[in-house]
Each structure stands twice: as C-alpha cells, then as structure tokens.
Amino acid sequence: MKNKDVEKLYELVPIDTPVHLDGPVMGNGDGEYKQLSRDSKGVLVYIIQTRLKVVGYYEGECNGIFDKKTEEAIKSFQKDEKIPVTGSINMRDYIHLGLLE
C-alpha cells in the first residue's frame, strides 16, 4: 500500500482494528533507507520516532509524521552523538540509531 491509500483507509477503519502485515515492513529492498526531513511521512518516520522515544529523546506521538517535535528530538540526538546537527535523517543517523550496521 502507498501512504495515500493508508490515509484513505484511516477514515474508514476503526481504531484498534487488528492489522496483519504481509511482506517486508521496510519495503521491497529498493532504497528504503532514504533521507527524511520535515513533512516526510511513513513507516520509516514511525520507526525513527519510536527509537528516539525509547532512548529518551522524543516525547511526541509516534505517528509516522515528521513534525517539529521529531526534528527537535533528532537534533538533540545528533548533538549528543557528536554528529552533524541537521535535524534530518540520513544513512549516518540510521547507523547511530542502531537501525543499520
């Protein structure tokens, strides 16, 4: 499904409806780990938010929408990791977050 399809279904499906994922969560193997920045949406943003929340940087809702709170959490994480503070996510950040080796 594409994000636009999910957004349409959101209005139709009640909260707490069980969902079953079939196939790789991260996509089909073709460049899933893309650069993310403000206004990005999707499962990768959700995963980043969740990881940042677990390590104490993010206090917002994990909703897959790259908003100001997400950007601020990323900047704090980058500063503490002593990597360039950009507020966006690239391959280096995936590695520092432990999502890639």
TrEMBL record:
<dbReference type="InterPro" id="IPR036365">
    <property type="entry name" value="PGBD-like_sf"/>
</dbReference>
<dbReference type="GO" id="GO:0016740">
    <property type="term" value="F:transferase activity"/>
</dbReference>
<dbReference type="InterPro" id="IPR002477">
    <property type="entry name" value="Peptidoglycan-bd-like"/>
</dbReference>
<feature type="domain" description="Peptidoglycan binding-like">
    <location>
        <begin position="44"/>
        <end position="89"/>
    </location>
</feature>
<dbReference type="Pfam" id="PF01471">
    <property type="entry name" value="PG_binding_1"/>
</dbReference>
<protein>
    <submittedName>
        <fullName>Putative peptidoglycan binding protein</fullName>
    </submittedName>
</protein>
<dbReference type="InterPro" id="IPR036366">
    <property type="entry name" value="PGBDSf"/>
</dbReference>
<dbReference type="InterPro" id="IPR005490">
    <property type="entry name" value="LD_TPept_cat_dom"/>
</dbReference>
